[in-house]
Amino acid sequence: xxxxxxxxxxxxxxxxxxxxxxxxxxxxxxxxxxxxxxxxxxxxxxxxxxxxxxxxxxxxxxxxxxxxxxxxxxxxxxxxxxxxxxxxxxxxxxxxxxxxxxxxxxxxxxxxxxxxxxxxxxxxxxxxxxxxxxxxxxxxxxxxxxxxxxxxxxxxxxxxxxxxxxxxxxxxxxxxxxxxxxxxxxxxxxxxxxxxxxxxxxxxxxxxxxxxxxxxxxxxxxxxxxxxxxxxxxxxxxxxxxxxxxxxxxxxxxxxxxxxxxxxxxxxxxxxxxxxxxxxxxxxxxxxxxxxxxxxxxxxxxxxxxxxxxxxxxxxxxxxxxxxxxxxxxxxxxxxxxxxxxxxxxxxxxxxxxxxxxxxxxxxxxxxx
Length: 369
Hints:
Elements: E1 2-5, H1 20-27, E2 32-36, H2 47-52, E3 56-58, H3 61-67, E4 70-72, E5 90-93, H4 101-110, E6 113-116, H5 129-146, E7 168-172, H6 176-187, E8 191-196, H7 199-209, E9 213-217, H8 220-226, E10 232-235, E11 261-264, E12 285-288, E13 291-294, H9 304-325, H10 327-333, E14 341-344, E15 347-348, H11 351-357, H12 364-368
Parallel strand pairs: 1-2, 1-4, 2-3, 4-5, 5-6, 7-8, 7-10, 8-9, 10-11, 11-13
Antiparallel strand pairs: 6-14, 12-13, 14-15
Helix pairs in contact: 5-6, 9-10
């Protein structure tokens, strides 16, 4: 199979879909790998490294798109890339279609096979997990920074010092993002409350962190009360492949302390705060009702070297299965791959996406078999 990677064109996105080590893995199995010149520079990988590991370097993204059978990316294609869509193309990347009707319609119209990292289910969400881990840890790091007065925050040090109060951190969602945010917040010495709807998950977190955290059932009454004292709130809610429910409403902002900070890690799925809107690394925050909002849609892009290596460690095995056997055969031998297919033969095939966009959903297993 002919595989390829291009330079990401999303603002301030420095990750890349394949490392030189990945290229060697594909090439050693007899596949041709095409890399746009300069694609890996943002993550610290030179063209020379790619070439030494068996890649064929091409001058432009257009050349790569038009050559490959499967395109491996990090982020969803932007409108400038829609022109490269075609019926026989497999697109293997994060898609986040539930919050993007335009992209979904373009994939359907062009009959691109969209294989989404974020919905592949195999004892969890293995292709989403590494970025969730990074985003969770970054959420506290960024939240602590934007609590500084210079950035519009209340001027509270997360850990406090002896004789001063620590910051109160509320984490909404106890999954991978929430757990990693909790780990960093606890490590920095904050007062941490973590909320989730799943009692068994709260029990797990209580056993893990013990008396260092407070667990809370996530419901309207509890959230409304907790936001009153929170200095930093992390939105870590996920419904795989579907739009995120709005847990924090606009009216809640009036109850909060001025200068408090919201970090919406779920913003690329629509966001779990009603007032969220996507921001970028060059201008990551905005203030509404005196509350600082940090809503960067590609948070792990801030640490591209770590993020690229972590992501491709996870995506390589499934990519090899698709490349070695073809998508249909790979699905037959590893049924978890079915769950990653969001579009196929001009149809939406992932229920969460179809439900969020009010589109018809087709059974991928029936289409392939």
